[in-house]
């Protein structure tokens, strides 16, 4: 089911938190709403689910205008961060709750609950109460309950936030599997870039109530539309250097790079270099500085190089090197992979 949100505006009292936002999600697509705390991710999700009334704009599911439809009439399943399971009900009753509200026959409810429990692999836990389950199992119950009415749209608000690192990893692929198997159109709200990149077909990166860029994970990583996007994606993060473009790129008094091919930039700019594109193992023009920090990561080390102008570049260097703290180094930058941004932060 295609989702089409157009010119969406949301206010709380006098404060406008979302202004004129448009988003379309293709049928069967899973899209991430990614962004820092307070940027409006949950607000957008609540508007699509119908929990929040919208102050401007329209929402369509396929050809149907659902802008004014109450939440219970929307073909939507929602999973919240805290799962919101009913503590006094068994797993089976939790999953079957949306069907009992619809007054389905008990035999039919039982059949569909069993089917859902199999899908999320908790068929053996149906008699338990939520507090007798692990976090990951509770998460699966919440998913089964969201899917049991066979909705056209699945909305997930930080569904993995309460799980430990290992379970998060497991549930990441589990949710993606379910989404693919059911072919449901899904929106995942998260502030975790790894989650967004690994689980979704596309990412809508939000900032202050608007979408800054919407693209596939690969494209957003390779061609960030702004300094904000470049800084949000990537772990360890990209390094930014202040530079001056004037025939070449001057970085402080002691370092300069040729202008990357095709740029006619002039004046002050920001140069963005990802740590995997700078180091002793690369080819390209070089930058000189001094090793100011080494953080072993196992397979590789993160190494900070501080330039004479006191700006810092981070490098990922394969482990087994003999680089020491304080050592002067002249390392190469993969110039074809660097990013340039103007004074306002837009990509050049
Ligand atoms: N019921 C409300 N009344 C007033 N302001 C609200 C209400 N709900 C949200 N806001 C404000 O709207 C903005 C967006 O909130 P929202 O919950 O959508 O952020 P979010 O991106 O989901 O953040 P987080 O990652 O912290 O969950 C915030 O500034 C928040 O304070
Ligand atoms: Mg939120």
UniProtKB/TrEMBL annotation:
What SMART domains is this protein classified in?
AAA (SM00382)
The UniProt entry, under Pfam families, shows: ABC_tran (PF00005), TOBE_2 (PF08402)
**Which positions are tagged coiled coil?**
none
State one molecular function term (GO). ABC-type transporter activity
Q: Where is the ABC transporter domain?
A: 3-233
* UniProt xrefs under InterPro entries: AAA+_ATPase (IPR003593), ABC_transporter-like_ATP-bd (IPR003439), ABC_transporter-like_CS (IPR017871), ABC_transpr_MalK/UgpC-like (IPR047641), Mo/tungstate-bd_C_term_dom (IPR008995), NA-bd_OB-fold (IPR012340), P-loop_NTPase (IPR027417), Transp-assoc_OB_typ2 (IPR013611)
**Keyword tags:** ATP-binding, Nucleotide-binding, Transport
One GO CC term, this protein = ATP-binding cassette (ABC) transporter complex, substrate-binding subunit-containing
Q: Which Gene3D superfamilies match?
A: 2.40.50.100, Nucleic acid-binding proteins, P-loop containing nucleotide triphosphate hydrolases
Please tell me whether the keyword ATP-binding is annotated for this protein: yes
**Top-rank lineage group of the source organism:** Bacteria
Regarding protein family, the annotation reads:
Belongs to the ABC transporter superfamily.
Q: What is this protein called?
A: Inositol-phosphate transport system ATP-binding protein
